[in-house]
Amino acid sequence: xxxxxxxxxxxxxxxxxxxxxxxxxxxxxxxxxxxxxxxxxxxxxxxxxxxxxxxxxxxxxxxxxxxxxxxxxxxxxxxxxxxxxxxxxxxxxxxxxxxxxxxxxxxxxxxxxxxxxxxxxxxxxxxxxxxxxxxxxxxxxxxxxxxxxxxxxxxxxxxxxxxxxxxxxxxxxxxxxxxxxxxxxxxxxxxxxxxxxxxxxxxxxxxxxxxxxxxxxxxxxxxxxxxxxxxxxxxxxxxxxxxxxxxxxxxxxxxxxxxxxxxxxxxxxxxxxxxxxxxxxxxxxxxxxxxxxxxxxxxxxxxxxxxxxxxxxxxxxxxxxxxxxxxxxxxxxxxxxxxxxxxxxxxxxxxxxxxxxxxxxxxxxxxxxxxxxxxxxxxxxxxxxxxxxxxxxxxxxxxxxxxxxxxxxxxxxxxxxxxxxxxxxxxxxxxxxxxxxxxxxxxxxxxxxxxxxxxxxxxxxxxxxxxxxxxxxxxxxxxxxxxxxxxxxxxxxxxxxxxxxxxxxxxxxxxxxxxxxxxxxxxxxxxxxxxxxxxxxxxxxxxxxxxxxxxxxxxxxxxxx
Length: 561
Hints:
Blueprint: H1 2-27, H2 32-52, H3 59-72, H4 84-98, H5 102-124, H6 135-205, E1 209-214, E2 219-222, H7 224-230, H8 234-237, H9 248-264, E3 268-275, E4 281-292, E5 298-307, H10 309-372, H11 378-409, E6 414-418, H12 419-433, E7 439-443, E8 448-452, H13 453-470, E9 477-486, E10 489-496, H14 527-537, E11 542-547, E12 551-556
Helix pairs in contact: 1-2, 1-6, 2-3, 3-4, 4-5, 4-6, 10-11, 11-14, 12-13, 13-14
């Protein structure tokens, strides 16, 4: 504000000097000396104005320049009868605006002393005063002096009032901002207090022990869970160290753990056994960590202790149960191995002991037909044919049973297997064995899985063989092998346009010796049971859909890896 006012005063002083005071003095026929002094003053005011544009404000220089001008032209300009006393009022108003503290009183005293001295000199030496030529000149000079003084005082007063108003508005805005800050601070303090109360409620409400210590190991916080576990009251602990909480040997161990946390500046997890006040033992899982201030310095530590007595007891019981389970598994494994050895012995017996009588029955039946066939009546020959057929069927059943039992015992050798190539090879074999049949094989290329090649080939032989067998009633049969999505998983299928089956009996389809068709189709009822066993050994599933006289589709899944 002062800088802006100083610029206005310099501009006003220069303008008034050159365009008001000098022309008026010339008209009043005042001595040329007066106009020279006023012109010098106006020029210096312009120089001060130019300096102000460079952020240089010579306020004291302007004051003394003005005072010197008044003293120089006091007597040549009519002394106290002219307008000069009015300009002293400008000086007195200038001082409190641009001077502060003690620097204000000395120029004020100097101004008063100067004015009194001029008046005294005028009284003592009246001949020094140059009078006006006429009363009209004196009145005109006073009017000009009053106008210039009024203009300067108005400029200063207006600037002061505007500055006061601006400062008042600034103070009002600051006050409003301060009030908002107070309201916001009050709200923040309320929220902090609420959060502190919530935090204290959570800390005291948890069943875990929570505590905080300062750098010297004295407790600053000790929640209800910690009081319960240690059997101490809060007033017995706060401000005290571990010797007030634990027995001496336990206190030393706890303080040693605190030193490790503080020196290492990192959290540690440990287990500690604690005796409660009633003598019961607790196993605590304790987490300790350092506390830091805003500068990152360690100022204390926190700790959280959880009662894991029950979980440790359960873990021990679980360990004992696992040991008992392992022992039982070993026993059952031994029994299972013994049973498997018995099964292998039984399979060997079936394979060798039963095959001998069957071969004898079949051989002697063939001998009877060859040597005594012409002498036998047709009915007897029919009986012999039935004996041979049944013995052959029984041999096939024994072979299938042995194959089914070996599937469950054999070890899987997983490799990449191309199901498309296997299906194509099986179809070629079937077509070569019966070239008279017209069968269209629709095999999707590039179907690959990971599994046991021998078992998967056996599975496809049964599936493709069933499709070949049950589609033999068609003049032009169709057998398809492909892949589609089923419930988001990849499923393979074997499809034919044969006799199909009734879905009401689908549960029996994959059971051993369960046949849904009569003797018009050869077979032992073991094929689909073998398929099911192979698929399940690979971790997959198998199912079938069919419509009587419209064909059937068998689906199976084989997980990857």
